[in-house]
Fold this protein.
Amino acid sequence: MSTIYEVSKLAGVSLATVSRVINKNAAVSEKTKEKVKIAMEQLGYRPNTIAQSLASNRSNSIGVLVSQLDSPFFGEMMVGIEDEMRKAGKQVLFAAGHNLESMEKESIEFLQSRNCDGLIVHCEQASDEYMHSLTKGKTSVVIVNRKIPMIEDRCVTLDNFKGGYIAAQYAVAQGHTQLAYVSGPHDKKDSLERLQGVKAACKDLGIELEDSHIETGDYSEKSGSDAISAFIEKGYRPSILICANDEMASGAMKRARELEIDIPKELSIIGYDNTSFTKYLHPELTTVENPIGKMGKMAAKLILNLAYDQKNVIHNRFEPEMVIRNSVYRHD
Amino acid sequence: MSTIYEVSKLAGVSLATVSRVINKNAAVSEKTKEKVKIAMEQLGYRPNTIAQSLASNRSNSIGVLVSQLDSPFFGEMMVGIEDEMRKAGKQVLFAAGHNLESMEKESIEFLQSRNCDGLIVHCEQASDEYMHSLTKGKTSVVIVNRKIPMIEDRCVTLDNFKGGYIAAQYAVAQGHTQLAYVSGPHDKKDSLERLQGVKAACKDLGIELEDSHIETGDYSEKSGSDAISAFIEKGYRPSILICANDEMASGAMKRARELEIDIPKELSIIGYDNTSFTKYLHPELTTVENPIGKMGKMAAKLILNLAYDQKNVIHNRFEPEMVIRNSVYRHD
DNA sequence: CTGTTAGCGCTTTCAC
DNA sequence: GTGAAAGCGCTAACAG
């Protein structure tokens, strides 16, 4: 591999001049620029990014922490980020936190040790305080899907309250009055917000949603199935079940099928996230769109602003929308 | 961030000595080693990986090219690789080729420009010749899921012939005689091999599989649906449809449901890959396990051998296995 | 607009 | 077993 030195020799200019045409950050006369370009071409010169990083103290890479690498949800997020960063000529390093506080911290340290210029993190377990302190470090940090007090401008979030609200609203609009809800874990803010949204909508619309009509799951398929069983044991037969994510909706559908409950006629189902696998479900799942791909893109834009002084327009609060498919029956 | 220089000052030794205890590649007396370690501890010293790379001409990172970042299939592969590389303390860069020759090459160049010590690639479009020349470069390359003549030792592959064979064999063992097959595109070797496996099994077992009972798809869900329609138009009603991947199997199931064909009673289905979404299908899909996660791990081990002189035991030819679930009806 | 020069933080001969 | 010193390939003042 040829070096900047060889290019400068061949072009008959100094190292600095070559560096300038590479970085386009200082005026170089058209003539010399041309000479340099020809020399680079001839030698097949490619700048050594490592050396660039060391000298400039910038690695032109950003680190991304997701919970899992093999999930449709994080997949979309990664694609959104990669896309945007690639356009900006920056590299992306992905690491997985596996939903464990220790792994999350370890992965963040790993990314930091790689001299990332910025971090985009989707942390589920690490505390608000930890996140907060992270943003105080010298590398910029953007947080996805979590609103942390004091640093909201670093957070790209979804209005989960509204997500819950519109789901319940839609259910009622379709003539349902016997609602049930499977919530996510109560120690997660997004889960809580969705629940509050559902409750608020019911209240606003004059529909009763007793506490006993709410089950708490853990976002897993199994907890969706379990919820169905739980309602049946309680003797409650809702006409519609709203789930805090698609995974649980899928579990609920499976259980219902085992029990020969017809979906959507006897039991309608609403999911949340609009994960890609919803298309494999039968009937196709009506759900709340979680624009995680777009949020990833926005997080990327934000980090580009923070770490590389770009001036992208930022809006960091996203609104969910209903995705109407076939799992909700209309009662007239 | 403290540097190696500060550590050496504090420990009262030279730079070189500190470097030695970091890299454990030369003898250092217990005493001084201890001193250095204490100094590193006190300063919270972390080696600067960029500087290490520049000086040693090794980046301790490997690049991975997949077709898509947001796919369950590649997700598993990425997890397998990340896992193994992480254990080895190496970094992984992921890039997407999007099934386009231009993007594949561009992404490979991107990874190379990042000074990866090795590359693991899953290329669909680039030619054998290109792949071949790639392995001739100075960075080691491992190829996943494609057997390229002359460099088989660099390839981690699945026995696709056997995959097709056991699928057909299983179908026949379950009492089916009216088989049909939806193949993948004919310009892909793996697709061809699966087809040949199916044909061979039929022949060996004395079952007829006319050419008209074979449809050619493109691995997409839609082409699975289309295949069903095509068979019906031809007036052929198979008792079992073997698909060259799960995606097409899913499409076929959808179409069958629309046509009110009962699965598996009237039509059994076998998929291929055992992708994670198969659990969302109904009935749960009987399919051929494609151990892509394990293959990713193995590719990682191989690249560790090639790029870092590790001595992992390699077996680069994987065997598929049937995963029996509920989409095949047994005819006695 | 262009060249000179001093590092960036580390590894790696080569002596001792 | 340890230290001195020469780079790795590039950027970024600074001077002209």
User: Anything to note?
Assistant: DSSP finds twelve helices and twelve strands in chain A. Residues 3-5, 15-16, 18-19, 22-23, 47-48, 50-57 of chain A lie near DNA strand D (CB under 10 Å from a C1').
